[in-house]
Amino acid sequence: MKISSKQISEAIPYAKRFLSFVNQSRSAYHAVDQVSKRLKTQGFQQISESESWNNKVKPNGKYFFTKNQSTIVAFAIGGQFKPGHGGLKIIGAHTDSPDLRLKPISKREKNGFLQCGVQTYGGLLAYTWFDRDLTVCGRVIVKTSTGFESRLVEVKRPILRIPSLAIHLNREVSEKGFKINNENHLNTILSTSIEESLNESSDESDNKIFKGQHHSLLLEVLAKELNVDMDDIFDFELSVVDTQDATLGGIREEFIFSPRLDNLMSCFTAMEGFEESMGSLPQDQDIRCLVFFDHEEIGSRSSHGADSVTLSQTVNRLARAMADENTPDDVTDMTISKSFIISADMAHALHPNYADKHETTSQVAFHAGPTIKVHCNQRYATNAVTGFLFKTLAERNKIPYQYFVVRQDTGCGSTIGSICAANTGIRTVDIGIPQLSMHSIREMCGIVDVQYTANLFKHFFEQFRELDDQLKVDG
Protein backbone atom coordinates (compact mmCIF):
# COMPACT_ATOMS: atom_id res chain seq x y z
CA MET A 1 0.00 0.00 0.00
CA LYS A 2 1.38 3.41 -0.96
CA ILE A 3 1.85 5.90 1.85
CA SER A 4 2.80 9.54 1.95
CA SER A 5 5.68 11.26 3.70
CA LYS A 6 3.09 12.93 5.93
CA GLN A 7 1.76 9.57 7.11
CA ILE A 8 5.28 8.43 7.93
CA SER A 9 6.09 11.60 9.88
CA GLU A 10 2.84 11.33 11.86
CA ALA A 11 3.61 7.71 12.77
CA ILE A 12 7.22 8.25 13.81
CA PRO A 13 6.41 9.44 17.37
CA TYR A 14 4.51 6.18 17.99
CA ALA A 15 7.41 4.20 16.55
CA LYS A 16 9.97 5.99 18.72
CA ARG A 17 7.94 5.37 21.85
CA PHE A 18 7.84 1.69 20.94
CA LEU A 19 11.62 1.65 20.45
CA SER A 20 12.07 3.03 23.96
CA PHE A 21 9.72 0.39 25.36
CA VAL A 22 11.14 -2.65 23.57
CA ASN A 23 14.76 -1.67 24.20
CA GLN A 24 14.04 -1.74 27.92
CA SER A 25 12.06 -5.00 27.71
CA ARG A 26 14.49 -7.76 26.79
CA SER A 27 12.57 -10.29 28.89
CA ALA A 28 8.92 -10.77 29.82
CA TYR A 29 9.82 -9.69 33.35
CA HIS A 30 11.27 -6.42 32.10
CA ALA A 31 8.26 -5.85 29.82
CA VAL A 32 5.87 -6.19 32.75
CA ASP A 33 8.09 -3.90 34.81
CA GLN A 34 7.96 -1.26 32.07
CA VAL A 35 4.17 -1.54 31.77
CA SER A 36 3.82 -1.30 35.57
CA LYS A 37 5.90 1.87 35.70
CA ARG A 38 3.90 3.44 32.90
CA LEU A 39 0.60 2.58 34.59
CA LYS A 40 1.77 4.14 37.84
CA THR A 41 2.62 7.39 36.06
CA GLN A 42 -0.99 7.38 34.78
CA GLY A 43 -2.40 7.11 38.30
CA PHE A 44 -3.02 3.35 38.40
CA GLN A 45 -2.90 1.70 41.81
CA GLN A 46 -1.21 -1.68 42.22
CA ILE A 47 -3.39 -4.19 44.07
CA SER A 48 -2.92 -7.82 45.02
CA GLU A 49 -4.83 -10.95 44.11
CA SER A 50 -4.32 -12.13 47.70
CA GLU A 51 -6.45 -9.29 49.11
CA SER A 52 -10.20 -8.74 48.88
CA TRP A 53 -11.28 -6.30 46.18
CA ASN A 54 -14.71 -5.76 47.73
CA ASN A 55 -15.22 -2.08 48.55
CA LYS A 56 -11.69 -1.41 47.30
CA VAL A 57 -12.25 -1.01 43.56
CA LYS A 58 -14.66 1.75 42.61
CA PRO A 59 -16.03 3.57 39.55
CA ASN A 60 -13.41 5.85 37.97
CA GLY A 61 -10.72 3.83 39.74
CA LYS A 62 -7.63 2.54 37.92
CA TYR A 63 -5.86 -0.61 39.12
CA PHE A 64 -3.42 -3.36 38.11
CA PHE A 65 -1.81 -6.51 39.45
CA THR A 66 0.99 -8.81 38.30
CA LYS A 67 1.56 -12.56 38.43
CA ASN A 68 5.00 -14.14 38.44
CA GLN A 69 6.44 -10.76 37.40
CA SER A 70 5.68 -11.79 33.79
CA THR A 71 1.87 -11.41 33.47
CA ILE A 72 0.01 -8.18 34.12
CA VAL A 73 -3.68 -7.27 34.28
CA ALA A 74 -4.80 -3.62 34.33
CA PHE A 75 -8.33 -2.27 34.49
CA ALA A 76 -10.04 1.11 34.64
CA ILE A 77 -13.63 1.13 35.91
CA GLY A 78 -16.04 3.38 34.05
CA GLY A 79 -17.64 6.13 36.04
CA GLN A 80 -21.11 4.82 35.10
CA PHE A 81 -20.38 1.14 35.70
CA LYS A 82 -22.99 -0.83 37.64
CA PRO A 83 -22.72 -4.57 38.32
CA GLY A 84 -24.85 -6.51 35.84
CA HIS A 85 -25.35 -3.53 33.54
CA GLY A 86 -21.88 -3.26 32.02
CA GLY A 87 -19.18 -5.56 30.73
CA LEU A 88 -15.43 -5.65 30.20
CA LYS A 89 -13.73 -4.30 27.10
CA ILE A 90 -10.52 -6.33 27.04
CA ILE A 91 -7.38 -6.27 24.90
CA GLY A 92 -5.25 -9.35 25.42
CA ALA A 93 -1.66 -9.90 24.28
CA HIS A 94 1.44 -11.72 25.49
CA THR A 95 4.77 -10.66 26.99
CA ASP A 96 6.93 -13.63 25.99
CA SER A 97 8.87 -14.15 22.78
CA PRO A 98 10.80 -17.15 21.43
CA ASP A 99 14.41 -17.16 22.60
CA LEU A 100 17.10 -19.22 24.30
CA ARG A 101 17.06 -19.82 28.07
CA LEU A 102 19.97 -20.87 30.26
CA LYS A 103 19.65 -24.44 31.53
CA PRO A 104 19.29 -25.02 35.30
CA ILE A 105 22.79 -26.48 35.13
CA SER A 106 24.36 -24.29 32.48
CA LYS A 107 28.03 -24.94 33.20
CA ARG A 108 29.85 -26.45 30.21
CA GLU A 109 33.57 -26.76 29.41
CA LYS A 110 34.69 -28.13 26.07
CA ASN A 111 37.87 -27.98 24.01
CA GLY A 112 39.32 -25.04 25.91
CA PHE A 113 36.12 -22.95 26.05
CA LEU A 114 33.70 -22.19 28.85
CA GLN A 115 30.14 -22.46 27.56
CA CYS A 116 26.62 -21.95 28.88
CA GLY A 117 24.08 -24.63 28.01
CA VAL A 118 20.74 -23.37 26.73
CA GLN A 119 17.18 -24.55 26.08
CA THR A 120 15.03 -23.38 23.19
CA TYR A 121 11.93 -21.48 24.30
CA GLY A 122 9.07 -21.50 21.80
CA GLY A 123 9.35 -21.89 18.05
CA LEU A 124 12.33 -19.64 17.44
CA LEU A 125 14.26 -19.37 14.19
CA ALA A 126 17.33 -20.66 16.00
CA TYR A 127 19.81 -19.97 13.19
CA THR A 128 19.26 -16.22 13.67
CA TRP A 129 20.91 -16.43 17.10
CA PHE A 130 24.23 -17.37 15.48
CA ASP A 131 26.96 -14.73 15.15
CA ARG A 132 25.07 -12.19 17.24
CA ASP A 133 26.44 -10.20 20.18
CA LEU A 134 24.47 -11.82 22.99
CA THR A 135 23.87 -11.18 26.67
CA VAL A 136 21.57 -12.40 29.45
CA CYS A 137 18.42 -10.81 30.82
CA GLY A 138 15.78 -11.99 33.29
CA ARG A 139 15.36 -12.37 37.04
CA VAL A 140 17.53 -13.57 39.89
CA ILE A 141 16.63 -14.82 43.38
CA VAL A 142 18.91 -13.07 45.86
CA LYS A 143 19.33 -13.28 49.61
CA THR A 144 18.56 -10.09 51.54
CA SER A 145 18.78 -9.03 55.16
CA THR A 146 15.15 -10.08 55.68
CA GLY A 147 14.88 -13.16 53.46
CA PHE A 148 14.92 -13.60 49.70
CA GLU A 149 13.83 -11.43 46.78
CA SER A 150 13.32 -11.76 43.03
CA ARG A 151 15.18 -8.98 41.21
CA LEU A 152 15.43 -8.09 37.54
CA VAL A 153 18.80 -8.10 35.83
CA GLU A 154 20.17 -7.23 32.41
CA VAL A 155 23.84 -7.34 31.52
CA LYS A 156 24.18 -4.45 29.08
CA ARG A 157 27.19 -5.69 27.14
CA PRO A 158 27.85 -8.70 24.90
CA ILE A 159 29.14 -11.59 27.02
CA LEU A 160 28.01 -14.58 24.93
CA ARG A 161 28.21 -15.73 21.34
CA ILE A 162 27.18 -18.71 19.21
CA PRO A 163 29.68 -18.77 16.32
CA SER A 164 28.65 -20.41 13.08
CA LEU A 165 30.81 -23.05 11.41
CA ALA A 166 32.99 -21.69 8.62
CA ILE A 167 31.88 -22.68 5.12
CA HIS A 168 35.31 -24.25 4.55
CA LEU A 169 34.34 -26.88 7.16
CA ASN A 170 30.74 -27.21 6.00
CA ARG A 171 30.72 -27.15 2.20
CA GLU A 172 27.22 -28.62 2.01
CA VAL A 173 25.54 -25.70 3.78
CA SER A 174 24.79 -23.84 0.53
CA GLU A 175 23.03 -26.84 -1.04
CA LYS A 176 21.48 -28.61 1.96
CA GLY A 177 20.82 -25.63 4.23
CA PHE A 178 21.93 -24.64 7.71
CA LYS A 179 21.01 -27.63 9.87
CA ILE A 180 21.17 -27.26 13.64
CA ASN A 181 21.23 -29.80 16.41
CA ASN A 182 19.70 -27.82 19.26
CA GLU A 183 21.54 -29.78 21.94
CA ASN A 184 24.99 -29.62 20.41
CA HIS A 185 25.17 -26.44 18.36
CA LEU A 186 23.46 -23.74 20.43
CA ASN A 187 25.68 -23.74 23.52
CA THR A 188 27.04 -20.22 23.94
CA ILE A 189 30.69 -19.33 24.39
CA LEU A 190 31.39 -17.36 27.56
CA SER A 191 35.17 -17.42 27.86
CA THR A 192 38.29 -19.50 27.47
CA SER A 193 39.01 -22.06 30.18
CA ILE A 194 42.16 -20.39 31.50
CA GLU A 195 40.32 -17.45 33.07
CA GLU A 196 37.82 -19.69 34.88
CA SER A 197 40.56 -21.76 36.51
CA LEU A 198 42.10 -18.61 37.94
CA ASN A 199 38.85 -17.78 39.74
CA GLU A 200 38.16 -21.19 41.33
CA SER A 201 38.54 -21.47 45.13
CA SER A 202 37.20 -23.45 48.07
CA ASP A 203 33.56 -22.71 48.80
CA GLU A 204 31.59 -23.10 52.01
CA SER A 205 28.71 -20.71 51.18
CA ASP A 206 24.99 -21.50 51.61
CA ASN A 207 24.49 -21.50 47.83
CA LYS A 208 27.44 -23.78 47.11
CA ILE A 209 25.35 -26.29 45.11
CA PHE A 210 23.83 -23.59 42.91
CA LYS A 211 27.19 -21.96 42.30
CA GLY A 212 28.58 -25.29 41.17
CA GLN A 213 25.93 -25.46 38.45
CA HIS A 214 27.02 -22.26 36.68
CA HIS A 215 30.30 -20.66 35.75
CA SER A 216 31.66 -18.35 38.43
CA LEU A 217 32.46 -15.77 35.75
CA LEU A 218 28.78 -15.53 34.89
CA LEU A 219 27.73 -15.30 38.53
CA GLU A 220 30.32 -12.59 39.16
CA VAL A 221 28.86 -10.47 36.36
CA LEU A 222 25.32 -10.96 37.71
CA ALA A 223 26.43 -10.07 41.24
CA LYS A 224 28.06 -6.88 39.98
CA GLU A 225 24.92 -5.86 38.05
CA LEU A 226 22.74 -6.50 41.12
CA ASN A 227 25.22 -4.97 43.56
CA VAL A 228 25.21 -8.10 45.73
CA ASP A 229 27.76 -10.72 46.72
CA MET A 230 27.99 -13.80 44.55
CA ASP A 231 27.17 -15.85 47.65
CA ASP A 232 23.75 -14.12 47.77
CA ILE A 233 22.59 -15.46 44.37
CA PHE A 234 20.44 -18.57 44.81
CA ASP A 235 18.64 -19.08 41.48
CA PHE A 236 17.74 -17.39 38.22
CA GLU A 237 15.68 -17.49 35.02
CA LEU A 238 17.74 -15.91 32.26
CA SER A 239 17.15 -15.47 28.55
CA VAL A 240 19.94 -15.21 26.01
CA VAL A 241 19.13 -12.07 24.03
CA ASP A 242 20.65 -9.74 21.44
CA THR A 243 22.40 -6.60 22.66
CA GLN A 244 21.48 -4.69 19.48
CA ASP A 245 18.71 -2.18 20.08
CA ALA A 246 15.60 -1.85 17.95
CA THR A 247 15.74 0.95 15.41
CA LEU A 248 13.88 2.70 12.62
CA GLY A 249 14.86 1.39 9.18
CA GLY A 250 14.32 1.68 5.47
CA ILE A 251 15.32 4.56 3.20
CA ARG A 252 12.32 6.58 4.47
CA GLU A 253 12.47 5.22 8.04
CA GLU A 254 9.08 3.62 7.47
CA PHE A 255 10.02 0.30 9.11
CA ILE A 256 10.90 -0.90 12.56
CA PHE A 257 13.75 -3.42 12.80
CA SER A 258 13.45 -4.97 16.22
CA PRO A 259 13.53 -8.04 18.41
CA ARG A 260 10.32 -9.20 20.11
CA LEU A 261 7.83 -7.45 17.83
CA ASP A 262 5.88 -10.64 18.45
CA ASN A 263 4.34 -9.67 20.74
CA LEU A 264 5.56 -6.58 22.56
CA MET A 265 4.24 -4.45 19.70
CA SER A 266 0.71 -5.59 20.56
CA CYS A 267 1.31 -4.81 24.24
CA PHE A 268 2.61 -1.37 23.30
CA THR A 269 -0.26 -0.41 20.98
CA ALA A 270 -2.79 -1.66 23.52
CA MET A 271 -1.14 0.50 26.19
CA GLU A 272 -1.19 3.51 23.86
CA GLY A 273 -4.89 3.16 23.09
CA PHE A 274 -5.74 2.41 26.73
CA GLU A 275 -3.91 5.49 27.97
CA GLU A 276 -5.27 7.81 25.28
CA SER A 277 -8.85 6.75 26.07
CA MET A 278 -8.77 7.65 29.76
CA GLY A 279 -10.30 11.10 29.27
CA SER A 280 -13.71 9.54 28.56
CA LEU A 281 -13.60 7.05 31.46
CA PRO A 282 -16.11 9.00 33.65
CA GLN A 283 -18.82 8.53 30.98
CA ASP A 284 -18.17 4.79 30.47
CA GLN A 285 -20.59 2.15 31.77
CA ASP A 286 -18.05 -0.64 31.20
CA ILE A 287 -14.67 -1.69 32.59
CA ARG A 288 -11.65 -1.19 30.33
CA CYS A 289 -9.07 -3.93 30.69
CA LEU A 290 -5.62 -4.97 29.47
CA VAL A 291 -4.26 -8.45 30.08
CA PHE A 292 -0.75 -9.35 28.95
CA PHE A 293 0.01 -13.04 29.52
CA ASP A 294 3.26 -14.96 29.70
CA HIS A 295 3.82 -18.37 28.03
CA GLU A 296 1.78 -17.88 24.84
CA GLU A 297 4.71 -19.10 22.77
CA ILE A 298 4.68 -22.48 24.52
CA GLY A 299 0.94 -23.10 24.71
CA SER A 300 -0.28 -20.82 27.53
CA ARG A 301 -0.67 -23.68 30.02
CA SER A 302 0.73 -22.29 33.26
CA SER A 303 -0.48 -20.60 36.44
CA HIS A 304 -0.13 -17.22 34.73
CA GLY A 305 -0.69 -18.06 31.06
CA ALA A 306 -3.85 -17.46 29.06
CA ASP A 307 -4.99 -21.04 29.75
CA SER A 308 -5.07 -20.36 33.50
CA VAL A 309 -7.94 -19.04 35.60
CA THR A 310 -6.41 -15.54 35.70
CA LEU A 311 -8.82 -13.82 33.31
CA SER A 312 -11.98 -15.67 34.35
CA GLN A 313 -11.26 -14.97 38.02
CA THR A 314 -10.62 -11.31 37.25
CA VAL A 315 -13.94 -11.01 35.44
CA ASN A 316 -15.75 -12.71 38.33
CA ARG A 317 -14.08 -10.59 40.99
CA LEU A 318 -14.77 -7.34 39.15
CA ALA A 319 -18.40 -8.29 38.53
CA ARG A 320 -18.89 -8.84 42.27
CA ALA A 321 -16.52 -6.33 43.85
CA MET A 322 -19.00 -3.45 43.67
CA ALA A 323 -22.14 -5.55 44.28
CA ASP A 324 -24.77 -4.64 46.84
CA GLU A 325 -27.85 -6.33 48.26
CA ASN A 326 -29.74 -5.72 45.01
CA THR A 327 -27.13 -7.35 42.77
CA PRO A 328 -28.40 -10.63 41.25
CA ASP A 329 -26.57 -13.86 42.01
CA ASP A 330 -25.77 -14.44 38.34
CA VAL A 331 -24.09 -11.05 37.91
CA THR A 332 -20.91 -12.67 36.54
CA ASP A 333 -22.82 -14.33 33.70
CA MET A 334 -24.56 -11.05 32.94
CA THR A 335 -21.19 -9.28 32.82
CA ILE A 336 -19.70 -11.91 30.50
CA SER A 337 -22.56 -11.50 28.03
CA LYS A 338 -21.72 -7.79 27.71
CA SER A 339 -17.96 -8.27 27.42
CA PHE A 340 -15.61 -8.47 24.44
CA ILE A 341 -11.97 -9.45 23.90
CA ILE A 342 -9.57 -8.26 21.23
CA SER A 343 -6.81 -10.85 21.07
CA ALA A 344 -3.87 -8.91 19.63
CA ASP A 345 -0.95 -10.87 18.21
CA MET A 346 1.30 -10.10 15.27
CA ALA A 347 0.26 -11.25 11.77
CA HIS A 348 2.15 -12.55 8.73
CA ALA A 349 2.72 -9.92 6.07
CA LEU A 350 3.24 -10.99 2.46
CA HIS A 351 6.91 -11.85 1.97
CA PRO A 352 7.97 -10.57 -1.49
CA ASN A 353 10.53 -13.37 -1.91
CA TYR A 354 8.15 -16.14 -0.85
CA ALA A 355 4.78 -14.98 -2.17
CA ASP A 356 3.81 -18.57 -2.97
CA LYS A 357 3.65 -19.30 0.78
CA HIS A 358 0.67 -16.96 1.17
CA GLU A 359 -3.01 -17.41 0.36
CA THR A 360 -3.74 -15.60 -2.88
CA THR A 361 -6.74 -13.48 -1.79
CA SER A 362 -5.54 -12.37 1.63
CA GLN A 363 -2.03 -11.09 1.04
CA VAL A 364 -1.41 -8.86 4.02
CA ALA A 365 0.54 -5.65 3.35
CA PHE A 366 2.52 -3.15 5.42
CA HIS A 367 0.85 0.23 6.07
CA ALA A 368 -2.62 -1.17 5.25
CA GLY A 369 -3.91 -1.44 8.81
CA PRO A 370 -4.37 -4.20 11.36
CA THR A 371 -5.30 -7.68 10.18
CA ILE A 372 -8.38 -9.67 11.16
CA LYS A 373 -7.33 -13.31 11.49
CA VAL A 374 -9.84 -15.99 10.50
CA HIS A 375 -9.65 -19.78 10.81
CA CYS A 376 -12.85 -21.81 10.62
CA ASN A 377 -11.36 -24.51 12.86
CA GLN A 378 -10.95 -21.91 15.59
CA ARG A 379 -7.19 -21.62 15.67
CA TYR A 380 -8.29 -17.99 15.72
CA ALA A 381 -11.41 -16.98 17.65
CA THR A 382 -12.86 -14.61 15.04
CA ASN A 383 -16.38 -15.31 13.78
CA ALA A 384 -18.89 -13.32 11.73
CA VAL A 385 -20.15 -11.39 14.76
CA THR A 386 -16.81 -10.50 16.32
CA GLY A 387 -15.22 -9.75 12.96
CA PHE A 388 -18.16 -7.51 12.05
CA LEU A 389 -17.86 -5.52 15.27
CA PHE A 390 -14.13 -4.97 14.80
CA LYS A 391 -14.26 -3.99 11.13
CA THR A 392 -17.28 -1.72 11.69
CA LEU A 393 -15.39 0.08 14.44
CA ALA A 394 -12.47 0.52 12.04
CA GLU A 395 -14.69 1.77 9.21
CA ARG A 396 -16.46 4.29 11.43
CA ASN A 397 -13.08 5.78 12.31
CA LYS A 398 -11.63 5.59 8.78
CA ILE A 399 -8.94 3.11 9.77
CA PRO A 400 -8.04 0.50 7.13
CA TYR A 401 -8.01 -3.18 7.98
CA GLN A 402 -7.11 -6.44 6.26
CA TYR A 403 -7.94 -10.15 6.45
CA PHE A 404 -5.57 -13.06 6.97
CA VAL A 405 -6.36 -16.70 6.30
CA VAL A 406 -3.73 -19.42 6.03
CA ARG A 407 -3.25 -21.51 2.91
CA GLN A 408 -5.17 -24.79 3.12
CA ASP A 409 -2.00 -26.78 2.47
CA THR A 410 -0.18 -25.08 5.35
CA GLY A 411 -0.48 -25.41 9.11
CA CYS A 412 -1.85 -22.53 11.14
CA GLY A 413 -0.46 -20.92 14.27
CA SER A 414 -2.60 -19.93 17.22
CA THR A 415 -2.97 -17.14 19.77
CA ILE A 416 -4.51 -16.58 23.19
CA GLY A 417 -7.82 -15.75 21.47
CA SER A 418 -9.53 -19.14 21.36
CA ILE A 419 -8.11 -20.06 24.77
CA CYS A 420 -9.54 -16.94 26.41
CA ALA A 421 -12.87 -17.33 24.61
CA ALA A 422 -13.21 -20.94 25.75
CA ASN A 423 -12.16 -20.27 29.35
CA THR A 424 -14.38 -17.23 29.87
CA GLY A 425 -17.26 -17.51 27.39
CA ILE A 426 -16.48 -13.98 26.17
CA ARG A 427 -16.82 -13.06 22.49
CA THR A 428 -13.38 -12.67 20.91
CA VAL A 429 -11.78 -11.41 17.72
CA ASP A 430 -8.19 -12.18 16.70
CA ILE A 431 -6.23 -9.37 15.08
CA GLY A 432 -2.62 -8.38 14.51
CA ILE A 433 -0.17 -5.91 13.00
CA PRO A 434 1.57 -7.28 9.88
CA GLN A 435 5.22 -8.22 10.24
CA LEU A 436 8.03 -10.12 8.53
CA SER A 437 10.67 -12.44 10.03
CA MET A 438 8.36 -13.66 12.81
CA HIS A 439 10.28 -15.51 15.55
CA SER A 440 13.65 -14.30 14.28
CA ILE A 441 16.05 -12.53 16.61
CA ARG A 442 15.36 -9.44 14.45
CA GLU A 443 11.86 -8.82 13.08
CA MET A 444 10.32 -6.12 10.89
CA CYS A 445 7.05 -4.17 10.61
CA GLY A 446 5.71 -0.89 9.18
CA ILE A 447 5.33 2.17 11.40
CA VAL A 448 2.02 3.41 9.97
CA ASP A 449 0.29 0.23 11.16
CA VAL A 450 1.48 1.04 14.69
CA GLN A 451 -0.41 4.33 14.66
CA TYR A 452 -3.47 2.80 12.98
CA THR A 453 -3.71 0.07 15.61
CA ALA A 454 -3.11 2.31 18.63
CA ASN A 455 -5.85 4.66 17.41
CA LEU A 456 -8.26 1.80 16.76
CA PHE A 457 -7.69 0.46 20.28
CA LYS A 458 -8.51 3.90 21.67
CA HIS A 459 -11.77 3.92 19.73
CA PHE A 460 -12.54 0.40 20.94
CA PHE A 461 -12.47 1.52 24.56
CA GLU A 462 -14.51 4.63 23.83
CA GLN A 463 -17.05 3.47 21.25
CA PHE A 464 -17.60 -0.27 21.52
CA ARG A 465 -20.60 -0.17 23.86
CA GLU A 466 -22.62 2.04 21.52
CA LEU A 467 -21.83 -0.19 18.55
CA ASP A 468 -22.52 -3.44 20.39
CA ASP A 469 -25.90 -2.19 21.60
CA GLN A 470 -26.95 -1.80 17.96
CA LEU A 471 -26.30 -5.48 17.16
CA LYS A 472 -28.86 -8.17 17.91
CA VAL A 473 -27.65 -11.79 17.83
CA ASP A 474 -29.14 -14.07 20.50
CA GLY A 475 -32.16 -12.05 21.48
Explain this structure:
Helix 1 crosses helix 13 (447-468) and helix 9 (310-321) packs across helix 10. By secondary structure, the chain is an alpha/beta fold. It has helices at 5-23, 28-41, 173-176, 182-185, 193-199, 208-211, 216-226, 261-276, 310-321, 331-337, 384-396, 417-424, 447-468, and strands at 45-46, 62-67, 71-77, 88-94, 99-110, 113-121, 134-143, 148-154, 188-192, 233-242, 247-249, 255-258, 287-293, 340-344, 347-348, 371-373, 402-404, 427-432, 434-436, 443-446. Strand 2 and strand 3 form a beta hairpin. The two termini are 41 Å apart. The longest helix has 22 residues, at 447-468. It is globular and about 75 Å long. The chain is 30% helix and 24% strand. The strands form three sheets. The chain has a nine-stranded mixed beta sheet with strand order 1-2-3-13-4-14-18-16-17, with helices on both faces. Strands 8-7-10-5-6-9 form a six-stranded antiparallel beta sheet, sandwiched between helices. A five-stranded mixed beta sheet has the order 11-12-20-19-15. It is built from 13 helices and 20 strands. The model has no long low-confidence stretch (mean pLDDT 95).
Write the layout of secondary structure elements.
Layout: H1 5-23, H2 28-41, E1 45-46, E2 62-67, E3 71-77, E4 88-94, E5 99-110, E6 113-121, E7 134-143, E8 148-154, H3 173-176, H4 182-185, E9 188-192, H5 193-199, H6 208-211, H7 216-226, E10 233-242, E11 247-249, E12 255-258, H8 261-276, E13 287-293, H9 310-321, H10 331-337, E14 340-344, E15 347-348, E16 371-373, H11 384-396, E17 402-404, H12 417-424, E18 427-432, E19 434-436, E20 443-446, H13 447-468
Parallel strand pairs: 1-2, 4-13, 4-14, 14-18, 15-19, 16-17
Antiparallel strand pairs: 2-3, 3-13, 5-6, 5-10, 6-9, 7-8, 7-10, 11-12, 12-20, 16-18, 19-20
Helix pairs in contact: 1-13, 8-13, 9-10, 11-13
